[in-house]
Amino acid sequence: MCLNTGYPCDCLTPDVLCDPCRKMAHDLQAPGDKEHLSSDDGVAGGGPVAASAAATTPMEPTVDLSSGCVAEQCGNLGRLMSGLIAVNTLILGSALVSGTAYSTTSFNSADLQVYLIILMVLSGAWMVYYTVHTSQKHKAVLFKDGHAGPVWLRGGLVLFGVLSLIMDIFKIANYVGYLHCESAVKVVFPVVQIVFIFVQTYFLWFHAKDCVELQWNLTRCGLMLLLSTNLILWMTAVTEESIHQTGVPDFHNINNATSSRKSIIETVSFGEDECKCSHKACKTIKQAYYYLYPFNIEYSLFASAMAYVMWKNVGRLTDNHAPHHIRFHGKDIFFGPIAGILLVIAGLATFVVYEVEMDQEDVGRREHALMMHFVMNIVAVILMSGLTMVGVAIHMLHQQEHALGKNPTRTLDVGLLLGSSIGQLTVSYFTIVAEVGTGAKGHLNGLNLAWAALTVLQVILQNMFIIEGIQRLPYHEPHQPVSNVIANPNPYGCPNEELKSAADLEASEIDTGTSTAIHPITPKYHPRLTWNRRVLKEVCAFLLLANVILWIMPAFGARPQFDHYLETGFYKFSMWAAVVNIGLPFGIFYRMHSVASLFEVYLCS
């Protein structure tokens, strides 16, 4: 089959188009695909291809380079098939996760792990196939999305992946002690997950920017399977971590407004009632790997987001405009990082004291630790809200050009930011209703109400600031000036005869192209930031570090929602536990995603 009737050939048989046919295929692009041509998108090569794609024939669709089907048919079929795979995989996985959480039947976590092993094996096999297939097929990936998978995002993925590997190693060491009375699946699961994390990290590091032009349907289905696998792994990790932190309290023994953590937040043992560990290190290892759960949770979410962007980029054509090259410079800001570092240090100190004191039996010490935790969070959100309003005001006063065209990465960032903030807002609004409904009596209740109300304000303002910031085009640095400076030919006052001979020698060097006496000197040039750019960078730096500490405290075990008894008594434990265990993981992710988005706003400011 040949697309170019002027120069017939048989290039479609080996799935590789010759240049005339390739240009003809891109010239047949459908109008619906024109939206993919954006000035914000990077390119791997092939400027003439992009130029020809921009001047498309309005009635003819693009052709898939591997199957020969048109873009509209391939796109609709691939999206439908991949969507069905994702929906069914996620619903079944959610049912299995929910069924194994508190179920007392014979259906246990080993059955869920078998399902996850199957998904990880299938996803890993597809990633290996994709990597090998695209490397062997010539021009399988013609374009790269310059905005997808930036280095800092892939670096975070690698960091969280390494910590997840350490967590799985600890799990293997722990579960080996229960092999005599538990299923071997509990040991096989972390082993398979180690291989999966390694393969997926390699895959996303090298292929996160791909706009693949071959096997659209298979690629979309594979990416949706990968995304679903990571989301179910995320749900599993969140559920295990929530069960580890939360147990059903005995309300008959609770007589204080601030109940003991041991009655509400307890460590759920791994079969210690029916099955004893065969080595003494089980308890220590278990406590160690539970502290690594937050990193594993973030790894799964990072991987899911990058897989979704790849899914959106399948068959996507981009124009010949490379993305803006932005470098990180921190020498022009001072107050934001210093204030943020001080806030992080203060937050870590209060968090450590809070965790230690909440395990004590003395009610007074627990109330004091809880009050200190509330005050710390109130101070943090007040400072964040004030500086965010300054940033929003600067955005309103100094209008800047916004990025045009569709960008899957930017759209996903905004969607994740708004979606994950719902979890934080949900917990805060439930707290406000409970406090107002009971009158907010006492200093602890007043502090809790103030924290919840200020958190709502801070989240709304921060969303406005980030969304406006990431939609703006980066500032353009002025070009570095180049000065042609002629070196002094007589710096030491040598005699005229010597100067003349030196000048003759210099002239001969110029004729031969070897002169070094007259040369351009490029001085070091560091343009100073304007006042509005500097303020924006200071605000971004402080907000970034503040969100880090607000991520650390709940991610590593701070649960004032259960340490403070009011909401538990107002909503009853079952309902309040459901609200917190669903909303809090999204709130934790919101803080981490805000860190990534604020870093991007900082670079563009």
Rounded Rg? 30 Å
N→C terminal distance: 51 Å
Strand content range: under 5%
Structural class: mainly alpha
Helix content: 55-70%
Strand order of the largest sheet: 1-2
Unreliably modeled segments: 28-62, 250-259, 263-272, 320-324, 482-489, 505-521
Query: How many domains would you count in the coordinates?
Result: 3
Helix segment count?
Answer: 19
Main β-sheet: number of strands, strand sense, barrel status?
A: 2 strands, antiparallel
Shape: globular
Number of strands: 4
Q: What is the H/E order?
A: HHHHEHHEHHHHHHHHEHEHHHH
Overall average pLDDT = 77
Would you spell out the secondary-structure blueprint of this structure?
Blueprint: H1 19-27, H2 47-54, H3 71-101, H4 109-136, E1 141-144, H5 151-175, H6 185-207, E2 210-212, H7 216-245, H8 261-264, H9 282-290, H10 293-312, H11 335-357, H12 363-397, H13 408-438, H14 443-470, E3 483-486, H15 496-512, E4 518-521, H16 531-555, H17 560-563, H18 565-571, H19 573-604
Antiparallel strand pairs: 1-2, 3-4
Helix pairs in contact: 1-2, 3-4, 3-7, 4-6, 4-7, 5-6, 5-9, 5-10, 6-10, 7-10, 11-12, 11-16, 12-14, 12-16, 13-14, 13-18, 13-19, 14-19, 16-19, 18-19
